[in-house]
Write a structure and sequence with these properties.
Blueprint: E1 2-6, E2 9-15, E3 25-29, H1 39-48, H2 50-59, E4 67-71, E5 79-83, H3 92-111, E6 116-119, H4 131-148, E7 154-159, H5 162-176
Parallel strand pairs: 2-7, 3-5, 3-6, 6-7
Antiparallel strand pairs: 1-2, 4-5
Helix pairs in contact: 3-4, 4-5
Bound molecules: ligand AR6.
Length: 177
């Protein structure tokens, strides 16, 4: 586990499974339909149980770069925040949309009195975002938010494999300097 104090808050990196987190909210790297799908989204829906899809199915989808909130059902987390990352295309728009996913998720969390939140590495799996680039964007977005807002005390990145953890570790070192 690695951590960095940002303002009054803590930014943490851990390697593990986001479905097991006991933060107030976990974030889902969702698709526009908010359907279960594969990757981290499939894992979150399996762990939360069928009531999650009952709720997300009624929302009417989510645009890329935006976020929606539901309950967590069988998860330890009270809420799931669903955000849709960009499918990587190599255009400058990708970075703007990925940053927006983190900022919109954090804003929605703050509105719902979430004090602790766990993120996966959005867009870096099926959506093909190079993890080194994505890690820099993710950590900068969270740092910028935490410097302006005191209501969220813990932001934890839960990285699934060695490759993602290493990329985020390097990005965190860059953020410190
Ligand atoms: N805990 C933490 N991270 C995980 C877990 C887990 N249990 N499982 C996978 N990851 P992806 P995307 C990591 O593909 O690229 C879905 O089908 C994974 O190793 O889940 O945003 C949706 O429905 C990777 O680093 O999300 C969308 O259609 C990261 O989570 C599409 O995939 C994100 O990988 C979204 O693609």
């Amino acid at each position: 586990m690695l951590s960095l104090k940002v303002g009054e808050s803590v930014l943490e990196l851990v390697q593990g499974d986001i479905t097991m987190q006991d933060t107030d909210a976990i974030v889902n790297a969702a698709n526009k339909e908010l359907a279960p799908g594969g990757g981290v989204s499939g894992a979150i829906h399996r762990a939360a149980g069928p009531k999650l899809w009952e709720e997300t199915g009624k929302i009417g989808g989510c645009a890329t770069g935006e976020a929606k909130i539901t309950y967590g059902y069988n998860l330890k987390a009270r809420y799931v925040i669903h955000t849709v990352g960009p499918v990587y295309s190599g255009s400058p728009e990708d970075a703007r949309l990925l940053r927006s996913c983190y900022l919109e998720s954090l804003k929605l969390a703050a509105v719902h009195d979430v004090r602790s939140i766990a993120f996966p590495a959005i867009s870096t799996g099926i959506f093909g975002y190079p993890v080194e680039e994505a890690a820099n964007i993710a950590l900068a977005a969270v740092r910028d938010f935490l410097l302006e807002n005191n209501n969220i005390s813990l932001v934890r990145f839960v990285l699934f494999g060695d490759r993602d953890f290493d990329a985020f570790r390097r990005a965190l070192a860059g953020l410190r300097s």
